Amino acid sequence: MPSPQSLSDRDRRLVAAWAADCAEHVIDLFERETPDDDRPRDAIARARAYSRGELDAAREIRRRFVAGRAASAVSSPPAIAAAHSAAQAAGVAHMGAHALGAAAYAAKARGLSAAHESDAIADEVRWQLSIMSEPARAALRQLPPVGEDSAGPLGAGGLLATGILGSVIRTIQQSLRRSGPSD
Questions:
Q1: Which of 101, 130, 152, 163 is most buried, most CB within 10 Å of its CB?
Q2: Which residue has the higher pLDDT, 59 or 115?
Q3: Crossing angle of helices 97-113/163-178, nearest 10°?
Q4: What sections of 77-178 are H helices per DSSP?
Q5: Category of 132 on φ-ψ map: left (φ > 0), alpha (ψ -120 to 50) or beta
Q6: Is 147 left (phi over 0), alpha (psi -120 to 50) or beta?
């Protein structure tokens, strides 16, 4: 049985475009430090191509770690977080929950790069929510709340469930619930 964090292929394609937008919004933080390393930008392009139906999930699942390895090529925390955001965007082909990971890492990157601006993370999240399509919102509403599933990246012990990442995802999910369809 697939994880509730997976989403259908159709829904993963919907949220991949948004995840790519989130990652691209902070990619300059990586490229300033390592302008010749194109792994994160390639991951973003692949996430977009996957969202358009140009790439299949099986091939992208095998390639999803490439951009994450780029994080070891940089030393600043904002650049590392930006590389992880791109890697999470590429990972959407594998599991829809990674779209929230792309957004959370992008917000973290923005916050780290603007530590003197107390609203940097909140501003990034507001921007992310403002560009999210209604179909992507509907798809992301299907994901379990962060920290409540038993496994996976959003699960209680998952990579995305704690710290700033978990906090950002909670904020996004709360906004999605507030803007959800009436029952």
A1: 101
A2: 115
A3: 120
A4: 77-91, 97-113, 120-131, 134-141, 163-178
A5: beta
A6: left
